[in-house]
Amino acid sequence: MSVASTTERARGPAIQVRGLEKSYKELRVLRGVDLEVARGSIVALLGSNGAGKTTLVRILATLLRADAGTARVEGFDVATQAAEVRGAISLTGQFAAVDEILTGRENLVLVARLRHLKDPGAIADDLLRRFSLTEAGGRRAATYSGGMRRRLDIAMSLIGSPPVVFLDEPTTGLDPEARIEVWQAVRQLAEGGTTVLLTTQYLEEAEQLADRIAILHQGRIIVDGTLAELRQLLPPAKAEYVERQPSLEEIFFAVVGGAGAGRDER
Q: What is the pTM of this model?
């Protein structure tokens, strides 16, 4: 591999999607998705059930093949360089994939050993510290709260220092306190330079975490920008006694027209 190609990858976006399409028989899930994610940023992908969020993430993670279009992660083509893509990413699904019989530390050590990394114990201890789980590290994961399990799951996904992390609805089913714990963990990822693509149905989550927000509706990205840019899509706030900026919830429903998807997410 040439120095030029390596440099080009380092300068380009972490994720680049062009014209991506995917259908399940007669059901067109993705209808020409375009998306770019800058390195070290958090991008929230918003959409109703059935909008295609999980399908897009599965294609980017090389778990599913697109019917048309291209997608690159860390400069690698997801269709022709799947092994290189897998070496550059980590995927955390909607439910924590921890082994409840093992302790938190043992979960981390196991993954580090499976990845053939040196000094798995030191790696585990460092991640326990980063995610505020040191005191709970010797306890079985079955005793963890929902927020603690999810933080452990995210910590496990960071073993090997992947530059890109996909978080597919990481706070599904969590209570408000646990959600805040996960938000703090996601912020730590970005602060460390990790690129995060976050899918969520929680508008407040996107508002709190994302550098940019993309709205996926009926198989296409219909809006992509910062929260400030999205607010410009609505009429200016009218000042009577107190000027109030439109919430992300108001922006979302104004953009998609309040229409529900009416189909289960794939």
A: 0.82
